[in-house]
Design a protein that fits this description.
The chain is mostly helical and about 100 residues long. It has a domain at about 40-100: Alpha-Beta Plaits (2-Layer Sandwich). It is built from 5 helices and 3 strands, in the order H-H-E-H-H-H-E-E. Strand 2 (about 90) and strand 3 form a beta hairpin. Helix 3 packs across helix 5. It is elongated and about 60 Å long. The mean pLDDT is about 85. InterPro entries: Actin_motor_Myosin, Kinesin_motor_dom_sf, Myosin_head_motor_dom-like, P-loop_NTPase. Keywords: Actin-binding, Motor protein, Myosin. Pfam families: Myosin_head.
Length: about 100
Amino acid sequence: HWIRCIKPHPAKKPLMFDGVSVTNQLESSGVLGTVKIRKAGYPVRIYYKNFLSRYKLLIGRCSPDEPHDVQKEAVRKAMKMSKTTSREVQLGKTRVFMKSE
């Protein structure tokens, strides 16, 4: 659980609301990205290095210290070995996104 403080407007006066400012704050804090991912059905988000540590039996010889492209390829191989489809798992820039079921 986490809390994000969002300012309703830059003027700091009561009963004012700036929708553009609030949207920008939500976007830059990652809240909107999280909502989009969860809405798409991929609530489980795990960094590549954590995925590699957790599922090392499937992956084999790929260290979490490997370069990012090597880590991503190792996750692809694990998906292929476990017959996981792109409907169940998506690969992002820094994280693996998985369905919860």
